[in-house]
Amino acid sequence: MSQPLPLKSFIKRLSKLPGLGPRSAQRVALHLLTERQKAADLQKELAEVLSSVQECSICGNLGLDNPCHICVSEKRRRDVLCVVEGVDDLWALEDAGTFDGQYHVLGGVMSALDGIGPEDLRLKELISRAAENDVQEVILALGASVDGQTTAHIIAQQLATTGVKVTTLAKGMPVGAELDYMDAGTLALALQHRTNL
Questions:
Q1: Which candidate, 83, 91, 94, 177, places its Cα nearest to that of 130?
Q2: What is residue 55's three-state secondary structure?
Q3: Are residues 98 and 45 in the same domain?
Q4: Do 114 and 41 share a structural domain?
Q5: What does the alpha-carbon distance between residue 73 and residue 101 come to, in Å, rounded to a whole number?
Q6: How do strand 137-141 and strand 80-84 relate by DSSP bridges?
Q7: Among residues 81, 69, 128, 72, which one has the least CA distance to residue 105?
Q8: DSSP class of residue 19?
Q9: Number of compact structural domains in the chain
Q10: How many CB atoms lie within 10 A of CB 142?
Q11: Residues in the chain with pLDDT < 50?
């Protein structure tokens, strides 16, 4: 017997979430249907999150306040701006606990295949922030993918007129890695970006 239409639609919607394919979405849907109290608790928490968490109008972070706690903190440097693709990247850098500047969330990277151009990202806001504030350096913390590097190149070109120093994260060997397990691209980047000891 086939699934009821509302369930089929729910599974299809779940399968569009990051990390879930059709089979995983079906398992989640079945779990929620058999554990109805968990589903009700999840529904309540989701409603609470949707009503209380908002996007920071300055950096694009998610939080309870607008502007967010990072943007208003007096302890954060104002002269360094770290550009990230998404909020998850910002959270990863914050968890590392080593960056004390400001952030700018682009909301993605440019992708010709996906039809994402500069106008679909928070690029204008970035250029404004870099030009109008006391920003001395913009760190491009974007992925090493072709789309990430293309986006970084276009940002660097647009920031060239502002006089702001543009840097990128070092790329190459991860800590604790063995050479024989590295792919050719990672090894090439590691050799390209080698440093003095």
A1: 83
A2: strand
A3: no
A4: no
A5: 10
A6: parallel
A7: 81
A8: T
A9: 2
A10: 22
A11: 1
